Amino acid sequence: MNKKFNKLYNILCVIFALIFIAAMIITVSALPNIGDATNPTNNEVSEKYLTDSSWETGSLNAVSGMILDYRAFDTLGESHVLFVATVAVFILLRRDEDSRKDLPTRCLNQSYEQAYDPILAKSLEFLIPAIFVFGIYVIANGHLSPGGGFSGGAIIGAAFILYLNAYGLESIERFCNSRTYLICSCCALLFYGLAKSYVFYVGANHLHSIIPVLADGSILASGLILPLNIAVGVVVSNTVYALYIMFRRGGFSR
Amino acid sequence: MLFVQNIVSWSILLLIVSGAFTAVLNAKAAKYLSTIVIALVGVMNIFLLKYFLGGGESFTYSMGHYGAPAGNELRSGALEAAVSIVFCFVMLFSLIGGRKHIEEDVKGKKQNLYYISSIFLLCSMLALVNTNDLFTAYVFVEINTITACGIILAKEGRQALAASTRYLIMSLVGSGMFLIGICIMYGATGHLLMEPIREYVLTNIEPGSREMLPVQVSMALFAVGMALKSALWPFHSWLPEAHSSATASSSALLSGLVLKAYIFVLIKIIYRVLGIEVLSGNPIFDILLVFGAAAMIMGSVNAIREKDLKRMLAYSSVGQIGYIYLGIGMGSAIGIYAAAIQILVHAATKAMLFIASGGIMDVSGGSKKFKDIEGAGKRDPFAGAAFIVGSFSMIGIPFFAGFVTKYTLVSAATQLAGWRMYLAFIAIIVSTLLTAIYYLMAIAKLFGGENNSKRPEGFKFNIGYVAAIIIFIIANIVIGLNTDWLINLVDLGFSMFA
Amino acid sequence: MNYLLNNLPEYSAVICFAIGFSILLLNRNMIKKILGLGIMDSSIYLFLAVKGYVAGTVAPIVTLAEQAAGVDTTLYTNPIPAGLVLTGIVVSVSVTAILLALTVKLHEEFGTLNIDEIIHMVREEDRRKE
Asked: Is residue A220 within 8 Å of residue A213, measured between CB atoms?
C-alpha cells in the first residue's frame, strides 16, 4: 500500500512540475527578446547608473555604485540577513561547555580534529598570505574594478577556514575567537548602519553631505564606498568563518 | 522635508543599529534595551500618525540623495503609520507579557539571541509595511523568515525543531515565488519601484495585449507566494505546530504579526503596483476569494476538533487569515478596507489570547491540553478575563474589536454580484457560528469543573504579564467602542494609498 | 513560432526554476530539498543575468577617460541585474546555512532525514502524551 502510494506521489510530483514548467514558459515567451538594446530593462535607470555613478558616487564600477549608494538600503538589509542567519545558526548549533560533555558518541565524530599535516602546513605558509592579500585587494578596489566587500569577504573567510584546517584550532584561537568575532561583526555593522543613517538623513532632506567624493579614479575616490566595502568584507568573512566553525563543533572554544 | 517625516526611516534604522548592538550585551541588558527601543519606535510612530491625522499628506522618503526611479524609497501614509504603531505595541506587550516564559524556556546564553531576533523581526516588519520598492520587500521578507524561524527555535525540543523545519521550507517556497515574480516584473517593465512600474504599465502596455501576460502572472506569483507564507488554507499545515510548540511570546508574535506583515505587503502591491482597475478580471482575485472562504470554514472545523488550547488558537488563526483573504479577494475597495481592519484587530486580539494561554499553562502544571486546564480561568482570573474578551472579539459580538471586521466585511459582501456574494455570506455565517462554538467550549472548560480554583503552591503573578493582559483587554474594548474612528482611519489611509 | 525561439536562455532558467521548486516543495529528503533550493536560486540568477545582457557589450566598469568625456551607455551591460544577483546569492547562502543546521539537528534528534517520518514521529509522541 505504502509503496503504491509512493509511486503515485512521484508521478503526481512530475505532473505538477510539468504543468508549472509549461505555465512559466508561456509567461516568459511573452517577455521582450533578450539582448535587445531597446528592451524596457535598458531604460533611464540603468543609463543613470552608467553615466552618473562614476562622478556622483566616485565608483567606476557601476554595480558597486549602485548597491552601495543608489540602492544602499537593500544592501544594508542584505548584510543584516547574514547577521541574523548567524544568529539563527547559533541558536540551533551552539553547545555550552557542560552540554558538550554528555553528547552521544555519534555526535562526537563531528568534532573530529585533523592531524597535523606537514605538507599542507608548509605550503599554506606561502599560500595563506597570498590569499589574504588578494582578498584585501578585491575589497579595496571594489569601486574601481570587479569585486567588492562580498566577494573579497568570502575570499578572506575561505583563508580563515584553510588556516584552521592546517594549523588546528589552538593556533587560530589566538587571534580569532568568539570575542573577536562578536566585536568585529558588531563594529562593522554598527559603522555600516550609522554611516548609512547619516547618508539617508542628508539625502532625504537635501542637505549637504560632509563626506567628500573625489571621483578621480584613486583608491579614496569614492567617499563612503571604500569604508562600506571594508565593513561588508569584515561581516562576510566573519560570517563565513563563524558558520563553518559552528557546523564543525558547535562553538568557538574547545 | 518636514522633521516628523524622518521618523519613517529612523524607526527602521534605529532597530537595525540596536539589533546589531544587542549582540555584545548580556541577556539582562538585551532585555532592557529591546524593551526601550521598541517602545521608543512605537511612540515615534504615534507622532507620525498624529501628523497624518492633522492633515499631513502622504510622502515618499528617498533613502539617499537620489530618489525614484534610481534609488530606494520608503513611503508612508496614515495606514502605514497605524499598522506600524499596532505592530510595535503588540510586539512590546507580547515580549513583556511572555517574559517569564522566555526566561524559563530559552536557555542562558541564547536569551540575548532571542532578543536580537525579535528586534530584527520588528525591523523587517516595519520595513515591509513602509517599503516602496519590490526588491527591498524581498530582502526584508527573508529577514522576517529567518528571524521568525529563530524565535520558534529558541525553545528547544523535538517538536519545535520539526515545526520550524516545515515552516522554513514553506516560507522558502513562498519567497522563491516572490523573487521570480519580481524578476519577471522587472523584465517586463524595467523598474523595481512601485510607482514607476505603475506608470510604465499604464502608458506602455495595452490591457489585454500579449505584453500584459507577464505582468499579470507576476502579480499572481506575488499573491500565491505571500499566501504560502501567511498560511492561507490549504498551505496552513505548518502553522499549528509552529505556533503551538514555540514559547508564549513567540506564538503571539507569529500569529499576531508575522502573517500580517506579508499580507500587508500583498495589499500594498495590489493597490500600488498595478491598481485595482488594471487588475480587475485577473482570476487571482477569485482564487483568493474561494480559498479565503475555504480557510474560514476549514480552520474553524479543525479548531473544533482540537484537544489542545494553543493548537486550537493556531487553527483559529488559519480561519481569521481566511477573513483577510476573503476581503482582498472581493477585489473592491471596501473589501480591502475590511482586510486592513482585520489585520489591525486580529493582531491585537490573537496576541492577547496567546499570552493568556501562556498564563493558563502556568497554573495548569505546564500542560495545554483541555483536560488539564479545567478551571484555569478561576485560578488565573486575568487569563480568564482575557479569554472572554478575546473570544467575544473573535466571534464578532458588538462592542468588542472583532465586530468592526464582521460589519465591514458584510457590507462589502452586499456589493458583490452572483455566486461571489452567496459564497461570501455563507462563509461569514458558517465561520462565525463555528467560531462561537469552539471559543465558548474553551471558555466553558476554563471556568468549568469543581474544586479546582486553588493555585499551585507559591505561585505568584508576574507583574509584566498582568500589565500586558490588562492593556490588551483595554485596547480591545476601546477599539470595539470606537468603530467609526477606526473605519475613518482606514478610509483616510486608503485615500492616501493610490 | 518565431517568438518561441527568441528567449531560449530564459526558458532554461524557468525550467530549472520549476524543477528546483518542485524538489523543494515535494521531495521528502531534507538534503534533496536543500539541493532543490540551490537549483531554484541558481536558476533565478541565470534569469537575471540573461535579463542584464545586451548584445555586444561589456561589464559595466567605465574608465577614467570616459568619465571625463561622458559615458557611452550603449557599450555596457545593464548593472541592475548584477546587483540583484549579488543580493540574491547572499540571501540564499544564509537560508541554506540555516536549513543545513536544521538538518544536522534533525538527524541528531530523530536519526532520519525523511521529513514525513519526522512529522509522523512527532505526532506519535504527541498522541502518547495524552
From this structure: no
pLDDT for position A96: 62
The parent domain of residue B373 ranges over: 3-497
Least confident stretch, A172-176, B175-179, C55-59: A172-176
Please tell me the predicted confidence (pLDDT) of residue A97: 54
* Closest CB to A13 among C10, C22, C66: C22
Please give the mean pLDDT across all residues of chain B. Answer: 86
For residue C17, which residues of chain B lie inside 8 Å, CB to CB? 176, 180
Using 50, 70 and 90 to split pLDDT, how confident is the model at C31?
A: very high
User: Using CA atoms, how far apart are residues B267 and B88, in angstroms rounded to an integer?
Assistant: 20
Topology adopted by domain C2-129: Helix Hairpins (1.10.287)
Q: With contacts defined as CB-CB under 8 Å, which chain A residues touch B189?
A: 40
Q: Where are the domains of chain A?
A: 60-96+109-249
State what percent of residues in chain B have pLDDT above 70.
99
Contact state of C21 with A20 under an 8 Å Cβ cutoff? yes
Residue A231 confidence (pLDDT) above 70: yes
CB interface of A with C, residues 91-120, below 8 Å: 92-93, 104, 106-107
Segment B345-369, tens digit of pLDDT: 888 888 888 888 888 888 877 777 7
What sign has the CA pseudo-torsion A225, A227, A230, A231?
negative
pLDDT of residue C3: 63
Asked if A62 contacts C62 with a C-beta cutoff of 8 angstroms, the reply is: yes
Q: Chains with 3 or more CB pairs closer than 8 angstroms to A?
A: B, C
CA dist., res. C120 & res. C130, Å (int)? 16
C-alpha triplet C87, C91, C92: angle, nearest 5° = 115
Say if B161 is an interface residue toward chain C (CB within 8 Å): yes
Which one of C24, C44, C88 has the shortest CB-CB distance to B173?
Answer: C24
Please state the ipTM of this predicted complex: 0.93
Q: Which of B138, B158, B369 sits opposite C122 (nearest CB)?
A: B158
Q: Taking Cα atoms as reference points, which of B389, B391, B425, B395 lies closest to residue B409?
A: B425
Contact C130 B168 (CB under 8 A): no
Domain boundaries, chain C: 2-129
Cβ-nearest to B63 among A94, A96, A200: A200
Nearest-angstrom CA–CA distance, B250 and B273: 32
| B407 in C contact zone (CB under 8 Å) | no
